[in-house]
Design goal:
The complex is a heterodimer. By secondary structure, chain A is an alpha+beta fold. Chain A is built from 18 helices and 17 strands. By secondary structure, chain B is mainly alpha-helical. Chain B has 16 helices and no strands. Chain B is globular. Classes of the chains: A alpha+beta, B mainly alpha. At the A-B interface, helix 1, strand 1, strand 10, helix 8 and helix 14 of A face helix 3, helix 4, helix 6, helix 8 and helix 9 of B.
């Protein structure tokens, strides 16, 4: 129950609401007074568009929103350091040992922890949680299969011991990369095996059960989710770790940014997550609200289908990069939302080129025209650009279209629902498309392994989880370089290898990367310690 | 000739000669037409949904999925079956009140509708009460005083109600009454603080808070609903008042009105006691249609006011390619229209003795 002492408000608003409510109640032949309720002192109230949530199963979740909620309700083996996302810190694993050949990592787990169900958390739960991700084989399984764990071997290669779990790797991958990619990722979230198996339907390992609830251990527990309405997290009283600063996290689904802004300005929410650049600009000087932003590992790019047509030519793809007004768009449409970035490796990742080297392009119509002529298209060509419902996609596409027209390239823009866009791109049924891609790894390998590496380019191979395959792009030499960089033990040499790959891909790759996105929010100043980095928001650190 | 055939051929003046009484036959016809309408609606929505270039598998599994998992889910959803088999299975489920699982929420469509529909009914009902209670008197008055300043004002208000987008009106209303004056509650059905105190019984917050005897919560719910309901009522008001004015003007030009006036009846009594009774049937139809449109869900108003209602649910389902939810919602809309039509027919009998 809510503590009424937590409810505060201004006299003016309270009186006003009472007045109108009284009139309304009279109209409804009843009588009552309304009361103004600001956000409770022991709760964080957030306005956010949470339409994308469709399940809470870490094996299946792909959306940013659900991932963030899970990160605050389900512990992983290790966690990203709030201050530096490239570093990891202990979480449910107190510590870890690495074998001399780097092919075995043993995690030592906390003792005595319990799930909210009351079941004890065991090493078997931890290992089983990882096994089920591979066995269920949703998109997230690739996080493990990329490191050699398969359905056939996972029970032998991820093994529970005496309060330990050991990863047996097929290759000497860099340990930090394994920790970032797997141990800090949602695939290692510790699930309540007993509860899930008791609620198994068919052989779904609890997947349907998790469609509407969680079954894991973390600082908060999910107590309510009304789809398209609200989410309530409550502090997990029996949590093994430090108790969170606030008892409740209340997330109200608010799709309209203008409405979010009003709620934030009025103090009815503490955080608004989907404000537009205009709203953010207006709120910048507010005495009650701070604008906070952090770079996230999401890239907005213009992808080309290189199977045939003009985009099959490297010089055409390079020319397209010179049609993007990185600077102009960065100062207008993308203010607050992102920063120009032409490299596939996001800023902040291990091995990424710096801001200058990673964005060498600028709008240059003459250069574009020259490249088109060299590619055999002196008079340009016609092509289509598909894009979805991201608010910045339309103005960016229009800007590119206008610039392209100046060099004779007629681009027709086609806006569609995201589900339709994804279907077309996955099926290679497009010429070019603007969309976003987000990695879960603060390492250049995260994107190199999906956006550049392509194991099998045959149409029938249907490697749809690789955007490189969706672009029909395969460069065997680059595949080899990526494999080399992955296993390079010397950090300096590894960085150098990735630098070479990035420069090469910027010249000839199948995607013109345009912007690296920010996470931006308006935060009320009475909310203290709102902490986040590119990979997660730490609700448990927030206080009032 | 069988007894049934005799009845059907019109020789049924003797009730004893028919197997089925006329009311039963009428009900049977109504039910049959109801079933055919819904089946047609379901078929149309289902097959159009399958033709749309939206991928339900991507809606479930997301974009980043292996082809193996994609194929498994494709099969699990029954999409590998011929369309007529898929449709047959769907209808069989519907007959058992199983509309399938909503891909976007992971819950049964029926459960989703049961959750979101009360929010829309509540909003639409308050809106139609406001719209009707203001629209009808304004329409009548404007016909009575045709060409007067009152008539002009009602016409201008009607024009604004028709032409101003609810989305814009909603945002402006929020800025003025919520953010500037602080007279009403903000977006959402109730302040978050109260959500924990409420045990849902009917799903209608106004009723549930009253049932709980919590007046403070009731007031808060009223303060949240009053603005979106008024915005929706505005467009209903415009429609109802314009139509009422038009119906009434036609009646006021009839000879019986002149006769009533000549016999010394007051204007008010002539209009409300005689003319209005003659337009009641038409007004009921207009009000019922307005209500039906409101029950379909006012997507934009629900979006601006973060109102977790039916319209927004349906729109999200459509954009995500969640066809189970879309077909379920479409059937519900069909049921609403058919039910309100039936209700209108019943009310005709109340208001117009000739139809009895």
């Amino acid at each position: 129950m809510t503590n009424r002492n937590d409810v505060t408000g201004t006299k003016r608003r309270s009186a006003g609401r009472r007045l109108l409510s009284a009139a309304a109640v009279a109209a409804l032949c009843a009588g009552a007074g309304a009361a103004f309720a600001a956000t409770p002192k022991n709760a964080l109230v957030m306005a956010w568009n949470v339409d994308a949530i469709s399940t809470f199963d870490p094996a299946q979740v792909g959306e940013v929103v659900t991932n963030e909620i899970l990160q605050n309700t389900c512990d992983t083996l290790v966690d990203f350091d709030p201050a530096d996302e490239r570093k990891v810190q202990p979480s449910f694993a107190e510590r870890w040992d690495v074998s001399p050949d780097r092919k075995e990592i043993t995690f030592h787990l906390h003792k005595g922890a319990k799930f909210p169900s009351g079941n004890p958390v065991t090493a078997e739960d931890v290992a089983w949680s990882l096994h089920r991700v591979v066995k269920l084989n949703f998109g997230n399984a690739a996080t493990l299969t990329e490191f050699g764990f398969t359905k056939d071997n996972v029970e032998q290669t991820i093994v529970a011991g005496d309060n330990t779990v050991t990863f047996k790797l097929d290759k000497p991958y860099p340990t930090t990369l394994v920790l970032q990619s797997i141990a800090a990722n949602r695939v290692s979230m510790v699930m309540d095996k007993k509860t899930l198996m008791a609620n198994e339907q068919g052989s779904d390992l609890g997947n349907k059960y998790l469609a509407t609830r969680t079954a894991c251990v973390g600082p908060y527990k999910l107590t309510r989710w009304n789809a398209g309405e609200s989410i309530v997290l409550e502090a997990n009283d029996g949590y093994w770790g430090k108790a969170p600063g606030l008892k409740r996290i209340l997330i109200r689904h608010v799709a309209e940014p203008g409405t979010q802004r009003l709620l934030l300005s009025q103090g009815d929410v503490d955080v608004a997550r989907d404000l537009t650049p205009e709203d953010l600009k207006d709120l910048e000087g507010s005495k009650d609200v701070s604008i906070v932003k952090v770079l996230r590992p999401q890239l907005f790019y213009w992808g080309f289908n290189v199977a045939d047509g003009p985009f099959s030519k490297e010089k055409v793809r390079l020319a397209m990069r010179y049609l993007i007004d990185y600077e102009g768009l960065g100062k207008t449409v993308m203010t607050y939302l992102g920063v120009p970035r032409a490299s596939f490796a996001q800023l902040g990742a291990v091995g990424a080129l710096d801001a200058k080297e990673g964005q060498p392009f600028k709008l240059d119509l003459d250069k574009a025209k020259q490249l088109l002529a060299e590619a055999g298209y002196p008079n340009g060509f016609e092509a289509s650009v598909l894009f979805g419902t991201l608010p910045h996609a339309n103005p960016i596409a229009q800007s590119v279209q206008q610039n392209a027209a100046k060099v004779g390239v007629k681009l027709s823009l086609e806006r569609m629902a995201n589900a339709q866009l994804f279907s077309k791109v996955r099926g290679r049924e497009y010429q070019s498309a603007m969309l976003a891609w987000q990695t879960g790894v603060p390492d250049a390998h995260g994107n190199a392994s999906r956006l550049v590496f392509n194991p099998d380019n045959r149409p029938e191979a249907k490697q749809t989880q690789y955007p490189s395959w969706r672009s029909a792009y395969q460069d065997l030499a680059l595949n080899k370089q990526i494999d080399e960089a992955l296993l390079e033990a010397d950090p300096a040499k590894r960085d150098a290898l990735y630098a070479t790959i990035q420069k090469e891909v910027m010249e000839k790759g199948p995607m013109a990367f345009m912007f690296q996105m920010n996470s931006v929010a308006g935060v009320r100043k009475d909310l203290k310690s709102w902490t986040w980095n590119g990979f997660r928001a730490y609700y448990e650190l927030a206080t009032k | 000739m069988s007894r049934t055939a005799i009845a059907a051929s019109g020789h049924s003046s003797d009730p004893g000669r028919t197997i089925f009484p006329s009311w039963l036959k009428a009900s049977g016809r109504t039910l049959a037409s109801f079933a055919v309408t819904l089946l047609g609606l379901a078929a149309l929505t289902f097959f159009i949904g399958r033709l749309l270039p939206l991928d339900p598998v991507v809606a479930v599994l997301g974009d980043n999925v292996t082809q193996e998992a994609y194929q498994a889910m494709y099969k699990q959803l029954g999409l590998d079956q011929p369309l007529y088999v898929q449709f047959g299975r769907y209808i069989w489920g519907v007959l058992h009140l199983d509309f399938g699982m909503a891909l976007t929420t992971g819950k049964p469509v029926m459960a989703d509708i049961a959750r979101v529909f009360p929010a829309t009914i509540e909003l639409a009902s308050v809106a139609i009460v406001i719209g009707t209670s203001l629209g009808i008197p304004l329409g009548v008055l404007s016909a009575m005083y045709r060409g007067s300043w009152l008539d002009q004002i009602v016409r201008v208000v009607g024009l604004i109600g028709y032409s101003a987008p609810n989305f814009w009106l909603g945002l402006m209303g929020l800025v003025l009454f919520y953010a500037t004056l602080g007279w009403v509650g903000g977006p959402g059905r109730i302040d978050f603080t109260y959500e924990f105190d409420l045990e849902p019984v009917t799903g209608f917050l106004l009723i549930d808070s009253l049932l709980a005897g919590n007046w403070e919560m009731f007031g808060n719910a009223v303060s949240h609903i009053i603005l979106p309901a008024s915005i929706l009522a505005f467009s209903s008001l415009a429609y109802i008042s314009r139509m009422t004015r038009s119906f009434m003007m036609e009646q006021l030009s009839q000879e019986y009105v002149v006769t009533a006036r000549v016999k010394g009846l007051s204007w008010a009594r002539t209009v409300w006691g005689h003319a209005f009774r003659n337009i009641a049937v038409q007004v009921v139809t207009v009000v019922a249609l307005s209500y039906a449109f409101l029950l379909e869900g006012a997507v934009l108003t629900e979006t601006v006011f973060a109102w977790p209602g039916f319209g927004r649910y349906l729109t999200n389902a459509l954009l995500a390619g969640d066809m189970n939810a879309v077909v379920g919602c479409t059937l519900l809309v069909g049921v609403i229209f058919v039910t309100l039509n039936l209700l209108c027919d019943l009310l005709y009998r109340v208001f117009d003795p000739r139809t009895r």
